[in-house]
Amino acid sequence: MKDPAKFMSKAKAGVVTVEFRKIDTNELRVMPCTLNSESAGREITIKDFDPNSHHFVVWCLDKDAWRSFRVSTVERWYTGYPEENKDG
């Protein structure tokens, strides 16, 4: 993952989408997530961010629950909700 500090900053500000490979199946997971209470619709308490951490814990918006992912499995991330697959 490029620039984990920027990812965390954007997640604290609103919605981000992270695309990563699941460890057990190698399936691509497209996960809209946040660390922003307003975006989550609930109070979120965030621990201090360690930019050297090997995994992140975020509030997953499509599962309405805490989820984590390993930094090494991230293919890309971007601000906002998942992009539609646009062919052509």
Description:
With 88 residues, the protein is an alpha+beta fold. It has two helices and five strands, in the order αββαβββ. The protein has helices at residues 4-13, 37-40; strands at 15-21, 28-34, 55-60, 65-70, 74-79. It has a five-stranded antiparallel β-sheet. It is globular, with a radius of gyration of 13 Å. The model has no long low-confidence stretch (mean pLDDT 90).
Tell me the helix content: 10-25%
Number of strands: 5
N-to-C order of helices and strands: HEEHEEE
Distance between the termini: 27 Å
What form results from the Cα inertia axes? Answer: globular
How is the biggest beta sheet arranged?
A: 5 strands, antiparallel
Q: Point out poorly predicted stretches.
A: none
Output the strand order for the largest sheet. 4-3-2-1-5
Helix/strand-derived category reads alpha+beta
| Average predicted confidence as pLDDT | 90
The amount of beta strand, in percent, is 35-45%
Question: Over the alpha carbons, how many angstroms does the gyration radius reach?
Answer: 13 Å
What is the count of DSSP helices, taking H or I runs of 4+ residues?
A: 2
Summary tags:
about 90 residues, alpha+beta, five-stranded antiparallel beta sheet, 5 strands
What layout of secondary structure does this protein have?
Layout: H1 4-13, E1 15-21, E2 28-34, H2 37-40, E3 55-60, E4 65-70, E5 74-79
Antiparallel strand pairs: 1-2, 1-5, 2-3, 3-4
